[in-house]
Specification:
Low-confidence stretches: none
Mean pLDDT: 94
Distance between the termini: 24 Å
Helix content: 25-40%
Number of strands: 5
Number of domains: 1
Strand order of the largest sheet: 1-2-3-4-5
Shape: globular
Strand content: 25-35%
Amino acid sequence: MPVISKFYGIVIRMLCARLLGAHFHAFYEDSELLVSICPLGIIQGEAPGWVREMVIAWASRHQQELLADWDRCVAGQRPQPIDPFD
């Protein structure tokens, strides 16, 4: 699963699994979140509250880039890196 961003110990990865629709994975220590891109929201997983909030804030700032990366994955291409949380 390619890494597309890293910030504050959070690693964002994307893998094309069409069954779930446009989404990405956020990893922090032993936690994993599965996050829908459109509409933006957490599909499943557990993580500390601040991690959940930061992932959603980051994703809202980069939603169009995330959708473009999803389209790349669907087309069999690697997603492009996205700037970390600023």
